[in-house]
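Q: Hi! First time doing this. I have a protein sequence and I read that you can turn it into a structure. Is that right? Here it is:
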Amino acid sequence: MRRREFIAALSSLSALPLAALAQQPSMPTIGYLSFTSAEERPTLLTAFLKGLGLAGYVVGRNVKIEYRSAAGHYEKLPALAAELVNMRVTVIAATGGEGPARAAEDATTQIPIVFTVGSDPVQAGLVAAINRPGRNATGVSLLAYEIDGKRLQLLHELVPQGPTIGVLILASSPSLARTASDMQAAAAANGQRLVMLNASPTTDLETVFASLKPQGVDALLVTTSPFFEGRRNELVALAQRYSVPALYPWRDYTAAGGLMSYGTSFTESYQQAGLYVGRILSGEKPSDLPVVQATKSELIVNLKTAKALGLDVPTSILLRADEVIE
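A: Yes, that's right. Below is the predicted 3D structure, encoded as structure tokens:
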């Protein structure tokens, strides 16, 4: 730069008010902590961003997001949560179940947290009460595990002659111990026998499906887990290949060709989480925001898949279905 131009530039700066010269505050940052990557569940991230937008926040315009994914490994969550805390993010969105929520709460008592979980957050110790969470965390409870008994009843109606139900579970799930006894009680009431099928991020799912027939499994219940949701297309394809009637927790499975699903709307829950994050960014406290509980479950039936499996779906199920895919 020439000397004359340099002096002119200094003159123009000196003409500006001091407020204009002061450093502008940086945008608030959301730490998005998830069990699986955002790319594996794009509809949920879209729903979250929509809720954020309803609160007046748009990524890149007035808010930033730092994404951290455990890629299906629960043991990675504490370090990822600590990393977000060390970055001094403004709020943490702990998505994908109890594991991310617990990791975030263990990492900080100061940074606000908004979670999405499938269990009772009071029973899990995440909040003091539904209406008054009381600490630095609130969020959305899908009550996914509490309706596993209803899912077993639907399988009993669908396959009344099949008393042996395989239950696909993620062995490292924090909620498993609390829900297993309830599932056993519900199965006993239906005259069903449960075969627990353990999976992990290193499990070959085809090996699991190949073991169903030797174990006498008549139908399959896929439990709630972000790990399974990220592999729903593979699970649906394997159920078709091995001709096993399967019931899934969310609509995305039946839309991908699964036989039947029963559960709350995932997209609405993530939109609510995004809205809560936005409200916190605008100054509200998580301790004053009641945990939102999903109250309505939707039953989806895929008749095309039922026909391929040679199954006649009972009229009692079809009449209750919220959606029938033909």
